[in-house]
Amino acid sequence: MAWIYLLIASVFEVVFALATNATHGFTELWPSLLTAGAAAGGIYFLSQALRTLDVGVGYTVWTGIGSVGTVALGTVIFHESMTVWKALAFVLIIGGVLGLKLSDKLSPASSSS
Length: 113
Prior knowledge:
The chain has one domain (2-106). 78% of the residues lie in helices and 0% in strands. The chain has 4 helices and no strands. The longest helix has 23 residues, at 55-77. It is flat. It is a multi-pass membrane protein.
């Protein structure tokens, strides 16, 4: 269940980052409320995941998925540039996230699901 909570927290993290861009310095009401709600949701679900996951693994995966999701959706929604270097960085981040998940499963003391 911890990994599901972490995935939900990561979705909130992406929404938080994208909504923050739409607040225009917190001068727009609805994007500002969405930003605050997404931040709260992300922190809540991250805290639930960290009840069983190591903080180093959980936080790294959360920020990794949040980073990749934000940049990927930023290119679609805000027409930000995508370069070969950004794509390579995505592959490295995703590889790191998968490696952390695999290391959690292979750990003999693992109690997360």
